[in-house]
Amino acid sequence: MDDRPSLRERKKAKTRAAIRKATYRLAAEQGWDAATTERIAAAAEVSPSTVVRYFPVREDILLTDENDAVLEARLRARPAGEEPLESLRAVVLEAVRTALDEEPEETRLRARLMVEIPAVRARLTETTAATGRRLARAIADRTGRDADGLEVRIFTAAVLGALREATVHWAEHGRADDLVALLDRTVDTLKNGLIPSRPA
């Protein structure tokens, strides 16, 4: 069986990539307000209607990609019996590490815009929820629970929300720290709880 993407799928992926690349370039050089649909289309050499067809919400150009499917597949491939929190730690940290290695400037710009642009921050909450629903299915299958069950929904939302907040913290503090280490520390906090600091 041939699992390779069809020509049509490859063309669609190429177009999405061109739109993203043009958007990041415009936002980096001229600011998010300058990255209008029309200017993105011109820079990507597509029509404005094509941009809207691929990304009905402009902020999604920054915030959505094909990684959700990869995250889900990697989560399902984790060792049987591994604690769900450790499974999520492994797959998310691997994805962030890859993004920082392969697209460092885009990753940093996205984080900065999350802090600076309210519409991007608001949309991030929605896209994180969509990612959470997908990963919840994998967590449910691995734990023998209902994907729509309260416990699975709370667990998945809590983990992804905490990781999102850690990324915002990273961006607010100049993106100078090691993001992967911050995310790792975030999972540790979820796992161990908040230990009171001792007064000096």
TrEMBL record:
Domain HTH tetR-type per the UniProt entry, residue ranges: 13-73
DNA-binding region: 36-55
Keywords of the record: DNA-binding, Transcription, Transcription regulation
PROSITE patterns cross-referenced by the UniProt entry: HTH_TETR_2 (PS50977)
Record's keyword annotation contains DNA-binding: yes
Leader peptide range in chain numbering: none
Name this protein carries in UniProt: TetR family transcriptional regulator
Organism listed in the record: Streptomyces tanashiensis
